[in-house]
Design a protein that fits this description.
93 residues; mainly alpha; 2 domains
Length: 93
């Protein structure tokens, strides 16, 4: 695939700095490896990996009230508790 983009002059490369990880998830084993990596990060760091609501909140696309309302619609679970916690942490930052 990369060669096709290269031949068409549409391949753009960007070097990823520290804090990024790339996993090719084309096999069951590699998908499991990526899943385990994300799970370990989330558990050890206490943050979700690629949480769209959190990103929107941090970029100012969602207000604290909007994020809390969304968390309420999700019900009582770990994900909605995480969103509420991010609002509290953002208010204290």
């Amino acid at each position: 695939m990369n060669n096709a983009y290269l031949a068409a002059g549409k391949l753009h490369v960007m070097r990823l700095g520290r804090g990024y990880a790339w996993f090719d998830t084309g096999t069951y084993d590699s998908l499991h490896e990526a899943s385990s990596f994300v799970r370990t990060l989330e558990r050890r760091q206490g943050f979700k990996v690629m949480c769209p609501e959190e990103i929107a909140f941090e970029l100012g696309y969602l207000s604290a009230d909007q994020l809390l309302a969304h968390a309420d619609r999700l019900g009582r679970n770990g994900y909605s508790a995480y969103l509420r916690r991010r609002v509290e942490e953002g208010a204290n930052a």
